[in-house]
Each structure stands twice: as structure tokens, then as C-alpha cells.
Amino acid sequence: MATIGHTEAFNPENERISAYLDKQVAILLSVIGGKTYALLSDLLAPTKPAEKNLKDLEEALQTHFEPKPVVIAERFQFHQRYQEPGESVAKYKAELRRLAASCKFGDYLPQAIRDRLICGLRSEGTQKRLLVEAELTLTKALEIAQRMEAADRNTQRLKQKGNSDPLRVSDVHRNSTHGSGSSARSGTHEGSVVEKHGNGPTLFGRDWLMYIRMDWSSLCVATVQNNTLTLKNLLTTYSDVFKKELGTLSGFKVKLSVKPGSKPQFCRARQVPYAIRDAVDRELKRLESFGVIESVSHSEWATPLVAVPKSDGSVPLCGDYSKTVNPVLDIDQYPLPRPEDLMSCLTGGCKFSKLDLSSAYHQMILDEESRPYVTAPKRNLENKILVWYFDPFLILR
To answer: pLDDT band at 93, cuts 50/70/90?
Structure first.
């Protein structure tokens, strides 16, 4: 009876350990097969496999068939793993744990599996539910995800049960008319048509309209009667709001207060680059035509203007009040609300509007006593004039 592949237990009284291991080497080389033996010979060449001990043979085979994994590559595979269609949360978590075995996460292993589990889930609703948990462990995340998964599965079953209304079939008549409700004819093909009753699924979607050649515009036309909220009507009804001219804040004027004993500061006009001088002049004329600024002959206060060209070709003008009015301005200290306070005021709101006023701060008028504080000099080739610049926002910023 052949005994290849089987050895008795080592008995130190009968043989030496080296002889016992040599016997195991011979058995290993006999049972691995010709293909593996040839591969092992190539790996150990020029040394023959029989000349190596059992440990050397094991290391050579393991290095070839099970190379030592690269941690960064294993972690890349781990972080690229997403939940596949039809894969349960439990199976997905087990697959993540298998991939993490060679990633060497150490004590961070539970957190790594938890994070990858949340990021890789297919259900956005489950992800949002998990992300609101402050103290979320892997066990708790798995429990919540499995509950959400079961709830989705039960919901789908209820929907399928509710959409199981029967569909009635009626015959197609050759000379049927459009919109009969019980029969239809398309092109030269005739047959049975499915008529939908109840709350069953849609028979075909909009994509079919391009394949079924019919005059759909005459069959399916939706009109809205007495629509008074069209854009044209809104623009006509509220034409004063949408006109291109600047509006004016009515019933209120801005008053600037300076500290007692403040001395007026007069700064020269800054040089304007030749490339934008024409644009600056056009902007000054535009503001003057809207009543934002006006010319004066003299003033004890003067703040230089700063031209800021934009990509659309316009050149907005700003006043540099950092060395004139700002240091002596008596500013009202109003506590600004925090974003959290503003958001709490919107609780329960359903509809929100966003208003964007054109040059909003130009629509605020300064009172007569405050206008000299914001005077700005303008230099040209003919003479020097002074301009009142009505823009309180530029003063306070």
C-alpha cells in the first residue's frame, strides 16, 4: 500500500529531526505536481528544490503565489469599494471587513469601516440619516442602515401592491377617431390597445412620443386661463420698479455726525490712468444725470476718488475716506444679528424672495449738512471742480 503524502509523527528516539524534515521535503516535491515543481525549479535556479529545506521551499512558493500586499494599494482598493446594486448592507459591511484585513488600520479599523460604509452606500436617504448622528459607532451605523434598508424594502412592496390595478383591453376599430378614449390607431398597424384605468403604472413615457408619429400638438394642448402672473404683466404692472433709472429711498435721509472739534481734511485728486480717463468721465456724467452727484465750487472737505475697472468695461468709482471722514466719524454702534438668529426667524417659512437693488446705496440721499463731508475732487484739463459724492456705504466700510 502506497504511503506517499503521509508521514508518521516525529519520534526523537527513532530518528533525527533533520532526517524527518528531509522526508517531508521529498513528500512535498512528490505531491505538488509537475507544473508546480517546474515553477519551483525556476524560482530556486540554479539550486535544485531537493537541495533546499522545507522552510526555503515554503518561502519561495508563498512569495510567488501570495506576495506581500502593498498597504497603499490595499487601502486604495478599500476606499474604492461602493455598495453594488442589490447588495445588502450586511454583505457590503462584510466585504469591507475582508478588504480591510490587509490595510493595517490597527486601532482605527472600526472607524475606517464605518466611514467607508457611510460613503459607499447607494441610498442617499440612509447617508443623510447617518450623517446627523453626533456619536456614531460602527455598530450603531450598521444597525441604522439595516433598519433603513428594511423600511425601503417594505415600502417598495407596499407600492407594488397598491399599483396592481387591472388593465382593460379593448379592440381597435379601423376608422377610430382621436380622443375616443377606448380605441386608437397609429399609422398602418392595427391590433389591441391597452386602456389604463385606476392608479396603475404609466403605459409609456414621453420618449415614445418621438417614435409614435401623431399630431400630438393638436391632441395634447394645455392652456392656462386668466393667467395674470405672467412676466409681461408683472413688468407692465410694476414698471416703476423695473425701469433702468435709479430709484430713491423715500421718507428717509442719511445723516453723518462727526466728533466735536474735528478739523476738515482736504486731499488732492489722484491721477487717473489715461487708459480709463474717458470711462471715468462717462461714469461721472452718468451719476450726475441720475442725481447721485452734483458739482460745487468749493469745499473744506475733499476725499480722493478711486477708479476700479471691471471686466465688463465699466469703471465704478469709490471714495477713499480712510484719511478724511472715517477717523472722526461718530458711528452708531448697532449690534448685528448672528446668522443663527436670522435663520431662526425663517423657521416655518415656505416661500422666500430675494431682492437685488441696482446700486442700492446710490438710492440713499444724504441730508444737506452731511454732504460736504463726502465731497470728492475731480481733475480735468480745463479746471478743477468739486463733486458731492452721495454714497454712505463707502464711508462706513
So the answer is: very high
Q: Hey, what domains does the chain have and what are their CATH numbers?
A: 17-65 (no CATH), 71-161 (no CATH), 244-334+359-397 (3.10.10.10)
Cβ-contact 304, 377 below 8 angstroms: yes
Is the pTM of the predicted complex or chain greater than 0.85? no
**Cβ-based burial of 361 (10 A; exposed 0-12, middle 13-18, buried ≥19):** middle
Answer for the pair 303, 374: CB distance below 8 angstroms, yes or no: yes
To the nearest 10 degrees (0 to 180), the angle between helices 138-162 and 89-100 is: 150
Strand 384-389 relative to strand 293-296: parallel, antiparallel, unpaired? Answer: antiparallel
Q: Is the pLDDT of residue 314 over 80?
A: yes
CB-based contact 89:145 (threshold 8 Å): yes
Phi, psi of 363 (to 5 degrees): -85, 0
pLDDT surpassing 80 at residue 264: yes
pLDDT of res. 84: 92
Distance, CA of 138 to CA of 154 (rounded, Å)? 24
Residues 318 and 361: beta-carbon distance below 8 Å: no
Residue type, 173: H
Question: Which amino acid, 29?
Answer: L
